[in-house]
Amino acid sequence: MQVTGGRILAQRIFDVADEVRLAEAEALLRKTSDRLSFVRTASRIRNTQPPLQVVLDAPFSAVEGVPARSVVTRIYDLGAVVVTFEIPLPGPMSGEDLISLAARVLDSEERITDEARPIAEGITRAVAGASKISDVSNIVEDYTFIIIEGTTPKLTGEELKNELDIARLLLGERGRIASGERAHVLRQSFSYNPEELVVLDWNSALIVDPRGGLEVADVIELASMQLLNLRAYDQIVQRSLTRLYKEIGGRGARGFLSRRYRQLSLDIMRLFVDLSELTDRFDNSLQMIGDTWLARIHRAAVEEFDIPRWRRLLEDKLNVLHQFNTLLMDQVTTRDSMRLEASIVALIVFEIFLALMKLV
Questions:
Q1: Please, which residues bridge with residue 231 across strands?
Q2: What is the rounded CA–CA span in Å between residue 218 and residue 215?
Q3: What proportion of the chain, given as a percentage, has pLDDT over 90?
Q4: pTM above 0.70?
Q5: Is residue 256 over pLDDT 70?
Q6: Which of 24, 29, 235, 347 is the most exposed place for a label (fewest CB within 10 A)?
């Protein structure tokens, strides 16, 4: 079996802002270069705010000795920039050669991230005037798509499973692997028609599609972006908790003024609002138009990326913040009430004193 056509997409997703106003961002980017193309991508996914796509044709070498044909960047209104290196397969190759190439790409994780970071930073600077930036994390999500568009002889998805060691391909493993690990990798396999195949793993996916369509990759990209946002906000909430522990522990109940209590409580409430807005916007951004195939892929990606666990962890930390906020406001209210009562008592004593002075 020979793989006669296809490509590898090495993807990096960066958290760059709280929000990007895409219409303004497009206007800003159009002023910087006439070599950029702008495409609103939606495919079969109805996105209320489709990402702004910028294609860079300049040569990049994401993997040493393997040039990328192009770099596609996508800017999402949720404040994420996706940088994808497109690496074409260098002519017909055997299954073992493809596994070797995929392993080189997967082994070059840090190099690809280092190549992608300045691209994302350049895009971020260019659209700074259209961005809201307050608290951004340093988290980066990475994912690799191995896309096969043709084989000789022409094989169905099921036949390809027998001809190509897909588990080693997705794990980037040059040597042998155990049958249990192979079964674990292959458990997330999907086929819409005999010629197509999708195998989804936590860090990479195989997409067999003679049409070369990218709808499946788009859906997985959205799931990766959801994971990025959850991890980013988890980091922000953890920083808020650490700050809260430090403030209260360092100052103690007596030295912690009501004004500081109120400011900290305000910051916590603002964080709750931001998280609620993020969840609503993301949930509304992904709406399948009766496409059960893409919906199945998305659900599988959500499960594979362990997104429900990340969401539970974030909710638990938010509950802790909520409890702290309630305690803070109760203490502020109690202290203010005590001060008010003390002021009233002082006024009464002062009135009595004035009355006694008049009698004297």
A1: none
A2: 5
A3: 34
A4: yes
A5: no
A6: 347
pLDDT band at 42 (very low <50, low <70, confident <90, very high): very low
| C-beta of residue 24 within 8 angstroms of C-beta of residue 129 | yes
Given a cut of 90, whether residue 99 has pLDDT beyond it is yes
Cis before 92 (ω within 30): no
3-state secondary structure the chain: CEEEEEEEEEEEEEECCCEECHHHHHHHHHCCCCCCEEEECCCCEECCCCCEEEEECCCEEEECCEEECEEEEEECCCCEEEEEEEEECCCCEEHHHHHHHHHHHHHCHHHHHHHHHHHHHHHHHHCHHHEECCCCCCCEEEEEEEEEEEEECCCCHHHHHHHCCHHHHHHCCCCCCCHHHHHHHHCCEECCCCCCEEEECCCEEEEECCCCCCHHHHHHHHHHHHHHHHHHHHHHHHHHHHHHHHHHHHHHHHHCCHHHHHHHHHHHHHHHHHHHHHHHHHHHHCEECCCHHHHHHHHHHHHHCCHHHHHHHHHHHHHHHHHHHHHHHHHHHHHHHHHHHHHHHHHHHHHHHHHHHHHC
Residue of 99 and 253 predicted with greater confidence? 99
Residue 25 structure tokens: 């961002």
- Compare 323 and 87 and report the one with higher pLDDT: 87
Q: Using CA atoms, how far apart are residues 357 and 176, in angstroms rounded to an integer?
A: 100
Q: How far apart are CA 290 and CA 271, in angstroms?
A: 35
pLDDT level of residue 247 (50, 70, 90 thresholds): low
| Residue 34, both tokens | 């006439």
Using one digit for the tens of pLDDT, what is the confidence trace for 105-119?
A: 999 889 899 999 999
